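User: I'm putting together a teaching handout on how sequence relates to shape, and I'd like one worked example. Could you take Zinc metalloprotease from Micromonospora endophytica, show the sequence you're using, and then write out its predicted structure as tokens right after it?

Assistant: Happy to. First the sequence, then the structure tokens directly below it.
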Amino acid sequence: MSFAFGVVLFALGILISVSLHEAGHMLTAKAFGMKVTRYFVGFGPTLWSFKRGETEYGIKGIPLGGFCKIVGMTPQDDDVEPGDEKRAMWRYPVWKRTIVMSAGSATHFGLAIIATWLAAMTFGLPNPDFPRNEEQIRAEPAVIAIQDCVLPDTTYRECAAGDAPSPAGAGGLRNGDRITSINGTPINNYGELLTTLRATTPGSTATIGYERDGQSGTTETALATTKRPPINDPNGPVTDVSALGVGLVVSTPGLVSHGPVAAVGATSTFIGDMAVATAQALQRLPEKIPALWRAITGGERDIDTPISVVGASVLGGEAVANDAWELFVMLFISLNFFIGVFNLLPLLPLDGGHIAIAWFERARSWVYARLRRPDPGRVDYFKLMPFTYVVILIGGVFTLLTITADVVNPITLFPR
């Protein structure tokens, strides 16, 4: 039930975000005097609507977005009634049209920034000092978590009958103990723990020094045997090695909370990092298409492949089901920021495409004026329709791929 609630809640959050996106267009257009005739949440048949002034507001039957109709977005639009010619959007200065067309993305950015600031003051933002690669993990103090068993090889699965019990647990070690030595060899971090274990004979009895609640102690236990590649060569040959049956407890907190003032700086840093990550993700989109296809045709789903609104909603449901509300909020922030950036790409029919054309017209008029040549006028959108259809086709295929992958082979962040 909590999973379904999380899915619906996240989908509702997306719908509200998109509705606010369209509201951003509408409000800025009205503020400049442009005529807005319709503002609807959803698509398809009208379920309910009312008219106030010159604008009809309402709800459509398919809750997959929203739209607002601004009269005369292009010179080729035939929706301008007699007497409204001066209110056609394309007749307004380019800076006003830029504000109107970018207001949707600005709304997404605003939602992401506000949500990030609130998160910074509550459950916290990702700690930049948290270990995120193998080298940083090995530098962590060797604080342990006792495992249920020692698996015989590198294949991960649940413990089964016949698997060796954890030697650390059998030796009386507890979760949160810090390993300080093995057979007299000092252990200063988790990397040294692994290195020393690899140098110890599998199956032999080892003397383990540890620290618990500030008190030092020692214990003896028979080490188990498992198969692992060399520490510095994950693709190297697998051999028998010693195992203590422990995992690492990272002492560095993953999230850090801030006060209201400090949260402003933390939010700025977080959003800046997200901007860089989003730009990199957009650059990698073409190379992810083969990975999506492999996921659809039975291959393993790469966690770094793009997800659709369906996949994001499923992850939101998982987050709620596992009481990971911080993940739910981070997904909401990331998705809003990505949508904001994506909509500004200079491609029709995206908002960024209209902005790019407006500034192209402005620059071309300036150049022609300097050359003392007649103004070439406005861009003919009809001539750009083939390119627009190509963008729509590519976007539609990509969306279909991501939705299919999210249905048949979804990304999951929690064990099921």
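A couple of points you could highlight for students: The two ends are 15 Å apart (CA to CA). The first strand starts at residue 36 and ends at 52.
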